[in-house]
Amino acid sequence: MRQGFIKVAAVTPKIKVANPLYNREVICEGLEKAMARGAKIIVFPELCLTGYTCGDLYLQQLLIQESGNQLFQIAEATKGKDALVMVGLPVEREGKLYNVAAVLQNGEILGMVPKTNIPSYAEFYEGRHFAQGNEEVAEYSFAGRTIPFGTNLLFVCDNIPELRVACELCEDLWVANPPSTNHALMGATVIANLSASNETIGKDEYRELLVRSGSARLICGYIYASAGEGESTQDLVFGGHNLIAENGTILAQAKKFHNEILYADLDVQRIVADRKKMGTFGKEPQKIYKKVHFTFELAETNLERYFSPMPFVPSDERKKRQRCEEILAIQSYGLKKRYEHIGAKTAVIGISGGLDSTLALLVTVRTFDLLGIDRKGIYAITMPCFGTTDRTYENACKLSQVLGVTLREVDIREAVRVHFHDIGQEESRHDVTYENGQARERTQVLMDIANMVNGLVIGTGDMSELALGWATYNGDHMSMYGVNAGVPKTLVRHLVKYYADTCDNAELQTVLEDVLDTPVSPELLPPKEGEIAQKTEELVGPYELHDFFLYYVLRFGYAPAKLFRVAKCALKESYSEEEILKWMKNFYKRFFQNQFKRSCLPDGPKVGSIALSPRGDWRMPSDACAGLWLEEAEHCGNLP
Question: 598: helix, coil or strand?
Fold first, then answer.
């Protein structure tokens, strides 16, 4: 539970209809199994103490009394156990019968939440037996105990402030204005739905859509526990289609017709972080809610949640191709608008034979095709200098020729030597001045040629480089439109690969595949035996790690200890803990040190859920101190 992770469970026991004694036994068995696995919030189906399909047996007082008796036995079974448990049963109150979710913890019945929306259509006849639940919470005397009874109940964990739980029941999810809307606006971060949803053809897909979209709209965790085998099949069949979602993502989904316990790890800190960022999440409704307080023992959750090692890149091949096409469209249509606005017919790009400039050139070609402008108006400038290798030079030339753009070579060696002479820089001293002098000369050449041909300099730098400050200020840092500014390095590679696979041009595909095989490098140091001497990832760290850090720091505000923990889960097959910690510290240091470069970025399109534009997503002072983050990172090596 530390760092906001809560293991939750949706349990579908195999019950017997109208047999509360037997059902209590199988509920308690499921309870023990879920708690042994570490589940802290455990949700059972609607009316599971009696069975949903009792029909007119609900009018038999004996059944109602016995289900209440067995509820106390279940509550007793939670005594001394560290879990919040929701169980469905029929409850009589003031001469009316209600379909209720009872919330239990540590031997107590904390509250009862009645179903708000009572379906009486198609195969459902609940209105024959059950009354609509009251919103405003009343005190209910149940076998000598006074229990809060009403829809507007919020169960608040005192020692995990981000954890606030509310309930709704089955049909409540399917209506236009579900109770969960008010629950979430009143602060609930986790919604439990006790359900008995029968199976018909295609209903599972719609059910999944409702749970997914509900959790997305409300920015919450959603636990859906449904009735399964054991219910009467006189007219209906129940599949136990349990679902657990978080903010639009299905974390776990049960197989239908396999009564089982479904587990997932919710991240309530992540939910709260998303709500804080979303200023339009909504005002609190004009409702009176009663808060019921409870506590959990703070312990480490055994994480079973999957964390993608490349959060910017979909693992599903179909989705990846779809994502790549969409990003290329965003980049090219963004540049298209800029060209339509200024009326230019030419573009200038520094082409190095590396990944970033290749992607920028591909995007510019797509843009010119959309505009119906001759590709010859794209000036691909190769600028060999001290670190240029034959491989990258040849790839830059081949790429330009195959794409049908205008290739121009400007050898900048002598210009850089003159500049070094002017400022007193020894050419043999391979320091930062030696490197940046070349980078700034390249930018000057591009800007001046753009003036000559009346075009724009298209920026090539990507979002990962901007995050790390791996760009020469007023060198490759500067352009007139940065098409790659919203694309992280791990995604750049997949975009170029997608283009290679779909271009239907064997010659172009061959060049792109060789670009993909070339080590990432700014090529500012002389080659060693003809090979690239300056490999970026050896200097600043693997981009796979840095993009992982970037995503979780900016998207969800993860602190270093939590970031280190999930990085170990996601990347343990590729990196040691020592490597992860080393480069995480480096990420924080470089990210804070280089905000001044991001504070004056050229325009460029946002393509994903995060961006670094100072005019949009990320507004950070250039003088912010990294000390707090680095101090916590220092202690991460001592964590279990």
Answer: helix
